[in-house]
Amino acid sequence: MQQRIAWIDILKGIGILLVVFGHITPDGTVKTFIYSFHMPLFFFVSGYVFDPYRHPQYRDFFKKRFKSIILPFVLFYLLSHIASLIISSVLGSQPLAAANYYRPLLGLLIANSEWTQVVNNVPLWFLPCLFITVNILHLLRVSFQFSMTKLAVSLLIISILAFLESKYMTASLPWMLDTALTAVVFSGCGLIAKTIQHAGLKIVPHSRASAVALFLAFLGVTIYCSFANGRVDMNTRHYGNYFLFYGAAISGILSCALLARVMPPIPIISYVGMHSITILVLHLPLSQLSVACFDGLFLWYTDIPVNYILNGNMWAVIISGITIAQLILILRLFDKYYAPALSRK
Questions:
Q1: Which helix (H) or strand (E) holds 168?
Q2: Count of other CB atoms within 10 angstroms of residue 271
Q3: In 3D, which of 266, 260, 268, 265 has the Cα closest to residue 331?
Q4: Are 23 and 283 in contact (CB under 8 A)?
Q5: Residues in CB range of 2: below 8 A, 6 or more apart
Q6: Percentage of the chain surpassing pLDDT 70?
Q7: Residue 345 pLDDT
Q8: Partner of 239 for a Cys bridge, out of 128, 245, 282, 326, CB 3.0 to 4.6 A?
Q9: What phi and psi values does residue 295 have, to the nearest 5 degrees?
Q10: Residues lower than pLDDT 50 in the chain
Q11: What is the value of pTM for the model shown?
Q12: Intra-chain end-to-end CA distance of the chain, in Å
């Protein structure tokens, strides 16, 4: 089993908290800021923890990634489809057509965001995109015989081609192939960052004052580029300006990575980081359920819609907190009762 890296778990924890809040908060400056780097951050992490020496044979690498990424995608896609059918049957005024039962299953073959939206769990797009991304990175790494210079040049070329593709191609490709071309740029940057660090280059400043100054500098660049560029979304391949998009994404990643390296350990952030993929694929249905229950109870008790009392960001903080608490409870119960049973088999 690959040894965990403490600051990477913290970084993923920061990232997944931003993802949950970003999906709940209404459109505006906060959402624009979060969307500028929150998904690139996860692809960066996938590259940082990427180990091509662990599976030198591509067949072994493919099988490992298929089992760890695609099988969970299939499971959660089917669960989302079943949940969507149940909700539609209960709340719908008319019986569902037969096509509603079997047509969404095509999404398992096409595996892009258009079909994850059909089962009301859009964040599932990340899993097939991640699978394609790490496979591209593995092939690039081996093709260039582990040369970081050649990899960096290839990533630059790919970033330009992917950006041009997003401007002139409207249809989304199966298995998020088009988005994966942009994702592999960030994943490759993660791999290059790890290689540079392992070569002995000190990335984090020694003094706390220098670290804070560098963090604020990266944060400032992120804020400027994200607001200048406007709302972006890797899912829909809406990147805006090429330089502003990569400027916001890379500076946002660096600011979060620096924060994760210097901040004191917070167990709950590390825990959600360790389970970030599970939280990613479950948080949207749970948050929607939390909104419906909370809003219904508030309206029943006060006869006033809750959005009359709370503004958008405050409401998002409350629902995000409730959603994360629910997910932690589910994960704790799984770790306590189901995981030990699996280990005994």
A1: helix 148-168
A2: 16
A3: 268
A4: yes
A5: 49, 51, 54
A6: 88
A7: 45
A8: 245
A9: -65, -40
A10: 1, 341-345
A11: 0.92
A12: 18
Length of the chain equals: 345
pLDDT computed for residue 124 by the predictor: 95
Helical (H) or strand (E) element with 283 = helix 276-302
> Are 234 and 111 in contact, with CB atoms under 8 Å apart?
no
Tell me the two tokens of residue 66: 């298929």
User: Do the Cβ atoms of 178 and 159 come closer than 8 Å?
Assistant: no
> Phi and psi (nearest 5°) for 229?
-85, -30
Of 185, 286, 281, 283, which Cα lies nearest the Cα of 234?
Answer: 185
Per residue, the 3-state secondary structure of 84-141, as one string, reads: HHHHHHHHCCCCCCCHHHHHHHHHHHHCCHHHHHHCCCHHHHHHHHHHHHHHHHHHHH
d(CA 222, CA 322): 28
- CA 46 → CA 132, 164, 289, distances in Å? 12, 24, 30
Please give the C-alpha separations between residue 334 and each of 71, 224, 291, 330, 331, in angstroms, as whole numbers. Answer: 18, 42, 24, 6, 5
Q: Give the residue extent of every domain in the chain.
A: 6-273
Contact 239, 232 (CB under 8 A): yes
C-alpha closest to that of 245 among 263, 230, 260: 230
